Amino acid sequence: MEIETACVHGARDASQATGAVAVPIYQSATFAHPGFGQSTGYDYTRTRNPTTDHAARLVAALEGGAGASAFASGMAALSAFMELFSPGDELIATDDLYGGSIRLFDGLSAKNGVRARYVDSSDLSAVAAAVNEKTRAIFIETPTNPMMRVTDIAGVREIIGARDILLAVDNTFLSPYFMQPIALGADMVLHSGTKYLAGHNDTLAGFLVSKTPEMAERIHQLKNTIGGVLSPFDAFLVARGIKTLALRMEKSQANAMRIAVWLKDRPQVAKVHYVGLPEHPAHRLSRRQARGFGGMISFSVDSEATARRILDGIRLILYAESLGGTETLITYPVTQTHTAVPEPQRLARGIDGRLLRLSVGIEAVEDIIADLERAMA
Predict the structure, then answer these.
(1) Pick from 185, 170, 218: nearest CA to 67
(2) Is the pTM of this model over 0.85?
(3) Is 44 a catalytic residue?
């Protein structure tokens, strides 16, 4: 089954007696037992729910995983992932991460005795040098947020070799439509399902997809114990959103390419970071490990005053913190997504007051460009 078809039919339940085309919303906290010692397979929604199971099966199918667990947010999924580790364990993490991930690693995880060591994971030699006897996982975000660096997933898998080290990939930016990290050697894939999977800026969701049934069951037990589960209604919204994932990803990517090329010629723009541009350092790697480049762009302008003029001047584009929806959003990482990252770390990664991030939506690209041009004037 091609992925465009899988987005629509990937978890279809042929046993549905009603013939419902859309997955039903089982808005029930608890389920009755047929009799003593008997169960329908559903007891309590924190553990399992038919609607939530459908969304999780769909995401697992798209990623090529053995199973998935659905969480109330991407951060809830990442928090459950971190419960796999014990005090004294270390993980190697991409240094250019979403600020919320860094906040979790350096705050709660460090408090619990699990240390994150940050490296430029696009440099495989830096990854190899960082691995030691305490390393239990390598956590990659690719392309990175917000600088759009790309990591060679298969290359990291080769570094790990036969060692007992998990390789986890945050695939939020590309979605399984454009990239499937498990096929490249990942053990686990994380999604903020709020973004491209749900796709409409109307729900929060998170997913952890596991390569093996054993790890899928372990994550399921963590989800059930911690309790940050996806609600049935939100699971319905995610499943509905995924039906148009292919169309949305293709349109946002086409728009992003047009906008990136346009931005390069603006006198106010100093640098454009978009993986789809042939001059991007990882363009060839991206073509090898992914089917597309996505709809995320970051760009630096000539001054902080210009950045703030753009934020104040947009009328169609929305100044907001999220990404991956139908609407084009612009974000100011220094005061939004990465405000919790200490300034020296931000500046070292190129995240300063001149950097803006665009999540390109599905509007007519001419209207998006006109809005940016007006705001830059």
Answers:
(1) 218
(2) yes
(3) no
Does 98 participate in catalysis according to the annotation?
yes
221 and 267 part of one domain: no
Q: Which of 53, 95, 152, 170 is catalytic?
A: 170
Cα angle vertex 231, ends 227, 234, to 5°? 140
3-state secondary structure of 300: strand
Q: 21: which 2 tokens?
A: 């085309």
| Shared-domain flag, residues 276 and 355 | yes
Q: 98, 177, 196, 332: which one is catalytic?
A: 98
Catalytic residue among 48, 57, 195, 251: 195
Q: Report the domain count for the chain.
A: 2
- The answer to whether residue 46 is catalytic is yes
Are 266 and 312 found together in one domain?
Answer: yes
pLDDT digit string (tens) for the chain, length 377 residues: 899 999 999 888 766 677 888 999 999 999 999 999 999 999 999 999 999 999 999 999 999 999 999 999 999 999 999 999 999 999 999 999 998 999 999 999 999 999 999 999 999 999 999 999 999 999 999 999 999 999 999 999 999 999 999 999 999 999 999 999 999 999 999 999 999 999 999 999 999 999 999 999 999 999 999 999 999 999 999 999 999 999 999 999 999 999 999 999 999 999 999 999 999 999 999 999 999 999 999 999 999 999 999 999 999 999 999 999 999 999 999 988 887 778 888 888 889 999 999 999 999 999 999 999 999 99
Co-location of 224 and 254 in the same domain: no
Q: Is 288 a catalytic residue?
A: no
Q: List the beta strands (DSSP E) in 226-280.
A: 269-273
Question: Does 181 sit behind a cis peptide bond, omega within 30 degrees of 0 on the bond before it?
Answer: no
- Could you say which of 12, 46, 264, 308 is catalytic? 46
